[in-house]
Amino acid sequence: MIFEKSKIEQHNSKGEKLHSLKLAPLLNEFPDVEEVISLIAAFQVAIPSWALGTGGTRFGRFSGGGEPRNLEEKMEDIALLNQLNRASGAISLHIPWDIPTNPSAIKALAADYGLRFDAMNSNTFQDQPGQEYSYKFGSLQHVDKAVRKQAIIHNIEVIKHGIDLGSESLSVWLSDGSCFPGQLNFRNAFERTLESLQEIYAALPENWKLFVEYKAFEPNFYSMTVGDWGQSLLFANKLGPKAFTLVDLGHHLPNANIEQIVALLLMEGKLAGFHFNDSKYGDDDLTVGSINPYQLFLIFNELVEGMNARSMNHATDLGWMIDASHNVKDPLEDLLQSVEAILIAYSQALLVDVKALKNAQENSDVVKCQELLQAAYRTDVRPLVAEARLRNGGALEPLRLFREQSVRADLIKVRGEKTTATGL
Ligand code: PSV
Ligand code: MN
Q: What does the alpha-carbon distance between residue 48 and residue 77 come to, in Å, rounded to a whole number?
């Protein structure tokens, strides 16, 4: 289901007057506001192919209906999001959940929708029907060489799918680890994982990157072989210049200082990018910015500062993706909220008075440092985000338009009440 352009135009003209009133003070207050708006307008966040259906827990799953039944419908959903917010123009595929059986048709469809293929994701955390060896005790770390080989071959197949579609990166998240003390020799597990990753790395095309995602716990509860950014960075450094550390916001132990992790990874030129989500307790996969928007702002503050220090392109030099699960919300509404939260935090970070902050830091003026950061954080930047969206041809208020047009009801009519999208 794709919106008629006129619907977006009607919606925008209805809200235009109020929008201009809200925007005006910001245009006056910030001298570099035009640059800020164009940076926001350029920013894109990829949508994972597994986040378009209802998520669940091990206790249950409650579908809201109208879920995409195949990859084509998932792309249709992302195109719809992108029509509304003009900031979701990329899809990240998980294999084997979304194997592109006819890659040239899928590529052509993406071109029609104006979508590009972001990082490819491999899956060696589940056993697939007909698979020869089980990943119960790990994949790339497994004590049995045959299991490791099977997982390596899978990752190389994922790279091949990605090449067909024009993707340029592979994200590897391993559930490998151990559930009980003594189960695993940590050093051997690390060495076996490294050897396996080296084989995968060797299969990367010249222009590709390998993202090594870490996670503190789950599904293994005693040790994770890539359990934190230190372990991931160790792998990335040993692998070579095409390997980077991927930060998923939900993959840290409580109270971890993620913004500091980000600053140092950027300093080392080893930050791959992000899986955005929010959490209260662990890997909760909640809507971005729903629990701790200040932390998100602080992360973006480090990102902007660190990327500027390395003259990086904010929009294209790192991988930006959402990795959330929607248990009780409409997935499309949830994704609109997440993208909006990301753009808000990014905009606030762009408004930090960097010179004054540097000066306050050099003078150890702690109070001033906090005032400066919070002045940016407490600015209502929503009109700037809306203005960037308008300039890109999107909707003034994507969520409102989505609801006014009863998009979900229409999707249910076409796809049915009881559809299930692939994913966890
Ligand atoms: C694992 O928790 C993770 O964050 C990885 O990125 C997976 O690819 C994704 O979630 C989906 O299970
Ligand atoms: Mn993730």
A: 11
- Over residues 236-271, the pLDDT tens digits come to 999 999 999 999 999 999 999 999 999 999 999 999
Tokens of 316: 């294209």
Task: Name residue 240's amino acid.
Answer: G
Angle between helices 382-391 and 331-350 (to 10 degrees): 110
Give the CATH number of domain 5-415; options: 3.40.1650.10, 3.20.20.150, 3.40.190.10, 2.40.100.10: 3.20.20.150
Nearest one of 137, 135, 203 to 170, comparing CA atoms: 203
The per-residue pLDDT for range 303-353, each reduced to its tens digit, is 999 999 999 999 999 999 999 999 999 999 999 999 999 999 999 999 999
Predicted model pTM: 0.97
> Which of 87-112 are b and which e, b meaning 16 or more Cβ less than 10 Å from the residue's Cβ?
bbbbbbbbbbbbebeebeebbebbee
Instruction: Give 286 Cα–ligand 2 centroid separation in angstroms.
Output: 12
**Nearest-CA residue for atom 6 of ligand 1:** 173
- What is the CA(171)–ligand 2 centre distance, in A? 9
DSSP string, 106-130: HHHHHHHHT-EE--EE---SSPPTT
171: pLDDT confidence band, cut at 50, 70 and 90? very high
- As given in the structure block, the two tokens for residue 238 are 């040993």
Say how far apart CA 295 and CA 308 lie, in whole Å.
20
Ligand that comes closest to the CA of residue 215: 1
Residues with CB under 6 A from ligand 1: 50, 121, 173, 213, 215, 248, 275, 283, 323, 424
Q: Nearest CA to 402 among 112, 85, 88?
A: 85
Q: How far apart are the first and last CA of the chain?
A: 24
249 contacts 342 by C-beta, under 8 angstroms: no
Closest CA to 269 of 227, 312, 322: 312
